[in-house]
Amino acid sequence: MKIAVAGIGYVGLSLAVLLATEHDVTAVDVVQSKVDALTNKISPIGDPDIEKYLKTKDLRLTATVNSGKAYENADFVIVAVPTNYDPVKNYFDTSLVDSVIANVIGVNPNAVIVIKSTIPVGYTESAKQRLGTDNLIFSPEFLREGRALYDNLHPSRIIIGEKSERAKVFADMLISAAEKKDAPVLFINSTEAEAVKLFANTFLALRVSFFNELDTYAELHGLDTAQIIEGVCYDPRIGNMYNNPSFGYGGYCFPKDIKQMIANFNNVPNSLISAIAEANRTRKDHITEQIMALKPNVVGIYRLTMKADSDNYRQSSVQGVMKRLRGNGVEVVIYEPVLEDDKFFGSRVIRDLDEFFSLCDVIVANRYSPELEAISNKVYTRDIFRRD
Fold it and tell me: How far apart (Å, rounded) are the C-alpha atoms in residues 221 and 387?
């Protein structure tokens, strides 16, 4: 097959690398530096498996900024461009997805377009009518940033939002390139597939919020959070995953997906869905209060990234804590190696770890690291299990 992938983020790049083990794949992006990096077999995102595959595998993968050339002979075009939440419209901004689809139709109307971007419930059916094509399929992704290729190689499930022969062909391509061959495959309606994606992320955000509130209770009552969580999670119906306390959910996906889900429930009776975002705000308020109780003059933020082995700090939960601390008049400085600027939202970036340690009264770490051991008495974290 000839496949084009629009968007070299963690979703698009991991799919491009996966499918390039067996097919001719062209990755498309508007950012020339990403294209150049990929052309030189350098991953533009932090993902150890992608980095390994680019260096060691004989991939049939090219990259370009010329979208028309990439689409013109493609059998399948995978759309993996961002859909940021628009607070004014109270809805996902799907303009980039619309643009890619229109571009593909103009160049190659026979190509099957598979949307991997997260979209509102009902988008695929409405886009078919608006854009005048029946060649749209939605297939949700369930990937972790930093482990996206691994999750494609070992899928928990494959869901295709169409019941057709071409849907089966696409599913077979994913299974054939994966290492795990027995993942369940579901062929369902597009609108239900869109709902699956949003409800899955909403449940995960709910789970994060639940264990964070458990930790808040334990912290304020002088209890051992780890013992409580261990006892709770031995119940097989609950399971020992997604249970390590943090400063709240964040990152690229959860905040916007929860906002979209709340918008979807605007005229639907609910209490739980709308409470998830409020629980996340409450957690950040609590974390800030605990830090302020230590009466620091200078607070150091150790890493902005959401989790270990990640280079992504978009909407990371610690940023909410930073804003609250600054609002309380505390000086905030940051240690974050992936930042190139000397300031981040008005806070000084320090690149020398020893200087960072000596300057700060309290060091705040959403995720702990062994390099904090030397000054552990200064560290405030709720990373109970020292893992994601």
Answer: 24
Query: Any catalytic annotation for residue 233?
Result: no
Contact 301, 333 (CB under 8 A): yes
Quick one: fold of 2-188? Rossmann fold (3.40.50)
Summarised one tens digit per residue, pLDDT across range 270-328 is 999 999 999 999 999 999 999 999 999 999 999 997 665 555 566 788 999 999 999 99
Taking the C-alpha atoms of residue 161 and residue 190, their distance in angstroms, rounded to an integer, is: 4
83-129 residue pLDDT tens:
988 878 778 899 999 999 999 999 999 999 999 999 999 999 999 99
Question: Per-residue DSSP letters for 146-176?
Answer: T-HHHHHHS-S-EEES--SHHHHHHHHHHHH
Q: Would you give the distance in Å from CA 296 to the centre of its chain?
A: 32
Catalytic residue among 50, 253, 258, 349: 253
Measured CA to CA, the distance from residue 279 to residue 317 in angstroms comes to: 13
DSSP, residue by residue, 34-101: HHHHHHTT--SS--HHHHHHHHHS---EEEES-HHHHHTT-SEEEE-----EETTTTEE--HHHHHHH
| Coil, strand or helix at 320 | helix
Determine how many CB atoms are found less than 10 A away from the CB of residue 233: 16
For tokens 């968007």, the residue is 7
* pTM recorded for the entire structure: 0.91
**What is the C-alpha to C-alpha distance for residues 201 and 90, in angstroms, rounded to an integer?**
18
Q: Kindly give, in sequence order, each residue whose CB lies less than 8 Å from that of residue 133, ignoring residues fewer than 6 positions away.
A: 101, 105, 109, 113
Check if the beta carbon of residue 228 is closer than 8 Å to that of residue 218.
yes
Residues with Cβ within 8 Å of 261's Cβ and at least 6 positions away in sequence, in order, are 198, 199, 201, 202, 273
Q: What is the rounded CA–CA span in Å between residue 3 and residue 267?
A: 40
Contact 92, 86 (CB under 8 A): yes
CATH 3.40.50.720, domain 245-380, yes or no: yes
Residue 344 host element (H or E): strand 343-344
Pairing of β 185-187 and β 158-160:
parallel
Residues of the chain with CATH 3.40.50.720: 2-188, 245-380
